[in-house]
Write a structure and sequence with these properties.
mainly alpha
């Protein structure tokens, strides 16, 4: 054991400097890697957000398309009837305010004129309902033939 060589003072200093240079080089590389990782994640998140936006738009479009294709419910028809009655009342009020010379000859204010107006409107409403029923049954028939 007496033959053991003693380490010079410069060797530990040289090793320490080598380790410090290695650590400094690694720290710089880690910072570059961190920056590249952040950029990559940002791109990944942007891509995911764009894809999510596209999927939302496609789903909304599909829902709107289904809404347009679905048959009218009793509630829908009831709402349309209610709206039609309101429009009819408004039209009647407007017609009552028209000057007498613009009104038709059957609208002289007597009961027969009012009845004629009511009958004519009833016929128009019946014709419109009939046409709507034909369109509705035609649409149902074409849908059922497509589903076969």
């Amino acid at each position: 054991m007496a033959n053991r060589r003693t380490t010079p003072k410069e060797l530990p200093d040289a090793v320490r400097e080598a380790v410090e240079r290695t650590v400094q080089a690694t720290v710089g590389s880690a910072q570059n890697t961190r920056g590249r990782t952040r950029d990559t994640l940002d791109e990944l998140v942007k891509g995911a957000e764009n894809q999510a936006r596209e999927v939302r738009e496609r789903v909304r479009g599909a829902i709107e398309e289904l809404e347009e294709r679905r048959p009218a419910t009793q509630e829908d028809l009831g709402a349309l009837r209610k709206e039609l009655r309101a429009i009819t009342r408004r039209l009647d009020a407007i017609e009552r305010r028209l000057p007498a010379k613009r009104a038709s000859s059957s609208r002289t204010g007597n009961a027969r004129g009012a009845k004629t107006k009511s009958t004519a409107r009833s016929k128009k409403v019946a014709a419109a309902r009939s046409a709507a029923a034909k369109r509705s049954s035609g649409a149902r028939a074409s849908r059922s033939s497509r589903s076969r």
